[in-house]
Design brief:
With 281 residues, this protein is of the alpha/beta class. It folds into 2 domains: 62 residues, Orthogonal Bundle (Helicase, Ruva Protein, domain 3); 208 residues, Vaccinia Virus protein VP39 (Rossmann fold, 3-Layer(aba) Sandwich). Helices cover 38% and strands 22% of the residues. It is built from 11 helices and 11 strands. Helix 6 links the parallel strand 5 and strand 6. The chain is elongated, with a radius of gyration of 20 Å. The chain starts with a strand and ends with a strand. The protein binds S-adenosylmethionine. S-adenosylmethionine binds next to helix 6 and strand 6.
């Protein structure tokens, strides 16, 4: 056994991460298989294996790996999601889309929602977990991402209300395969302009899949295609909620208005960025 003091772990993280004490507690809880609440500020007995695991995680974290990818979990909205390098780590900025979707589902007594580019499933599964009578579909071109989404659906006990489909919106038979008309579409598609990818922080470009980030030359490739297929899978009067990047809201609105959608609302995230664009068919 090896003794390790909480403060020793904190010391390794100081100056390297924003919240060294919180992260030290999370890492120790993970290594010891305990809850964070059980990690005090004392000394811990670690087996050789646990000690090696701790050192590995600390080293990777100091090198810039995101904590959630190292621990395999991320809290988002009200729930905890399994994550891996096969999915985009859920971002707090996306929570406003989930909240806005929830309000519309409640007010309009919606029954069926589809998430285009579901990744970990964080948007779709949060909505299904909040609304027991809602059912939904999650579409993703990445088979590996859908494996994670399926695990998350199971963890939340909502797999019976959730259909996961390995499809691309660029597929010719996309509309046919997604099937029936939905009350709502939610989507956080890849939106980073191709030339900006290189300049992204290491914790994003090296740990999130490129296919979840790259929005093509101007960043709008996926919005243009989704705007083309969305009217065919959304019922009349249904809503589409889209996440966008910095300074993209107006162009996203233009793209969807060209396809006959009517702008409803644009919501800012906590940083004041116009993040969520809502339109109605
Ligand atoms: C920005 S991530 C969003 C993931 C998750 N919805 C979230 O908000 O955290 C975009 C997702 O779209 C998927 N994707 C990219 N191109 C796609 C396509 N042509 N058809 C379907 N899914 C696609 C990626 O695999 C990725 O999971």
């Amino acid at each position: 056994m090896i003794d390790i003091a909480f403060e020793q772990v904190v010391k390794q993280l100081v100056g390297k991460v924003d919240s060294p004490r919180l992260e030290a507690r999370m890492v120790l809880a993970f290594v010891l298989g305990k809850d964070c609440d059980d990690i005090g500020s004392g000394v811990f007995d670690l087996t050789d294996e646990q000690s090696k695991c701790l050192e590995h995680i600390l080293q990777k974290r100091i090198e810039g790996a995101p904590l959630d990818k190292l621990l395999g979990e991320k809290d988002f909205y009200k729930y905890r999601f399994k994550v891996s390098e096969d999915v985009l780590s859920p971002r707090p900025d996306t929570e406003i889309l989930v909240e806005a979707a929830g309000k519309l589902i409640f007010q309009n007594k919606m029954e069926k929602v589809i998430d285009l580019g579901t990744g970990s499933g964080c948007i779709l599964l949060s909505l299904l977990a909040d609304f027991p009578s809602l059912s939904g579909a999650g579409v993703d071109a990445s088979e590996k991402a859908l494996v994670i989404a399926a695990e998350n659906a199971k963890r939340l006990g909502i797999e019976s209300r959730c259909r996961l489909m390995n499809l691309s919106w660029f597929d010719d038979d996309f509309v046919q395969k997604t099937g029936a008309k939905y009350d709502m579409i939610v989507s956080n598609p890849p939106y980073i302009p191709h030339s900006d990818i290189d300049a992204l922080e290491v914790c994003v470009k090296s740990y999130d899949p490129l296919s979840a980030l790259d929005g093509g030359e101007d960043g709008y490739d996926h919005y243009r295609k989704i705007a083309e297929v969305a009217p065919k899978i959304l019922r009349k009067g249904g809503y589409i909620l889209l996440e966008g990047g910095i300074n993209q809201a107006q162009e996203i609105r233009n793209i969807f208005e060209k396809q006959g959608f009517v702008w409803f609302q644009t919501l800012k995230d906590l940083g004041g960025i116009e993040r969520c664009i809502i339109l109605k068919k």
